[in-house]
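Methods: example folding runs. The two proteins below were folded one after another, and each record is reproduced exactly as written to the output file, sequence line first and structure-token line second.
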Amino acid sequence: MTPARIDRPPQGDERSTLLAFLDHYRETLATKTVGVTDEEARRPLPPSDLSLMGLVRHMAEVERNWFRRIVAGGDPVSDANAGPIFYGDAHPDGDPDGDLHPGPDDTLADALSIWRREITAANTILDGRAPDDLAAIEARSAGGRPNLRWVLVHMIEEYARHCGHADLLREAIDGSTGD
């Protein structure tokens, strides 16, 4: 089943427009995984070690970092819901890039399920917040404590870049193209 992508309203207010673009890119990534086997999803595209499953796992970590840790202020050490999912101590070999390096037994279904769980958590955190609301903690990449607007634009940027990667990966897997 192909995920339904979100329409982006041409005259929406700022918050609804940002969220619609974010949801559109989230579903764009999901569409790139439809019909792909676990083996195909784990296979990197040389010379890179990037794979479709790795991208999905990475975006689960990105969602977790920006929304659970930065916006909501979860502590990755003491808060089980804010720690790493796939990398560092969470990876069987302690791989600091473990999100991008799925193992032979990892499945695309599990990666997608975890990614969707992080999106659900992010959306819960976003409920009732306005674009000018400040994140709970500073973010080094933002140069300080970002507002929600900055985080949403950054997430759209992150998804747009990685959806482009997913386009190339999917085309290399089976020749599928499209947005």
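Second run, written to the same file directly after the first:
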Amino acid sequence: MTHYSRLSKIVIDVPEGVHQPELAFWQGAMGLQLIQYGQFPEYHGADLHGHDLGMLLQLIGGGLPRMHVDIHTDDLEAEVARLEALGAKRQFKAHAAWWVMSDPAGLLFCVVPDEPGALNDENATRWD
């Protein structure tokens, strides 16, 4: 099925104990104010200067700090199926809205639906 997708965000996942120092570090390192992101208080983010790419700092419940990427798409199921055909695996659906998946090496990434009409030939890859 024809749809669009693109790499949209770099996400830094950190547990509560290091969340505030990590937030301060990345704000200073990137020269950006990372603000609370949408309806989810566990996310702070900003668009990166000069890029069609954003950065998020995500508060996680536990585990070790890590990084992952978010792929945005205008057709969630078509993009997930495309990535599965390349060797990705569904792990779980988060907030009933997007898929957490793993690549062939087991690294996690998210596939997130984007606003209708936000992706096009100028800012994303078209998959026929």
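Comment on the second run: The longest strand covers residues 3-15.
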